[in-house]
Write a structure and sequence with these properties.
Number of helices: 4
Number of domains: 1
Strand order of the largest sheet: 1-2-3-4-5
Number of strands: 5
Radius of gyration: 14 Å
Largest sheet: 5 strands, antiparallel
Structural class: alpha+beta
Length: about 120
């Protein structure tokens, strides 16, 4: 496996599906989100089941964070925070701005800690 956030995210989703913590449908939606918004420089996400049937992606660095919650019923909730303040929120399908927010977040992490990739593999 390579050392990209997308590879780790896909492995995490597969494990959650294999362990029965998320449905096959939700796992596919998670893979779709990874394919849609993850880029080569995207930082690692924490991916976990929530509320017994939903799936959460979470990134945090200092007072910046990004949250994506995918609901088993097909909906979703998206939030980007900077300086501890909501910059954007959205409920529904994946918004176009999420790609930009994750890109900006990942660039900031890269500037502040160029060795961030070592944190996952240590």
């Amino acid at each position: 496996m390579s050392n990209t956030a997308a590879d780790f995210a896909l492995a995490d989703i597969a494990e959650l599906e294999r362990d029965g913590q998320i449905s096959a449908t939700l796992a596919q939606r998670g893979r779709d989100v990874v394919g849609l918004i993850f880029q080569s420089g995207t930082t690692y996400a924490t991916i976990a089941p929530i509320d017994g049937s939903d799936l959460s992606f979470y990134w945090v660095a200092g007072d910046w964070s990004i949250s994506i919650d995918l609901y088993a019923d097909g909906g979703g909730w998206y939030r980007a925070r900077q300086g501890g303040v909501n910059v954007r929120t959205h409920e529904g399908g994946t918004p176009q701005w999420m790609w930009d927010a994750l890109h900006e977040f990942s660039e900031r992490v890269e500037r502040l800690n160029p060795a961030w990739r070592d944190l996952r593999t240590a």
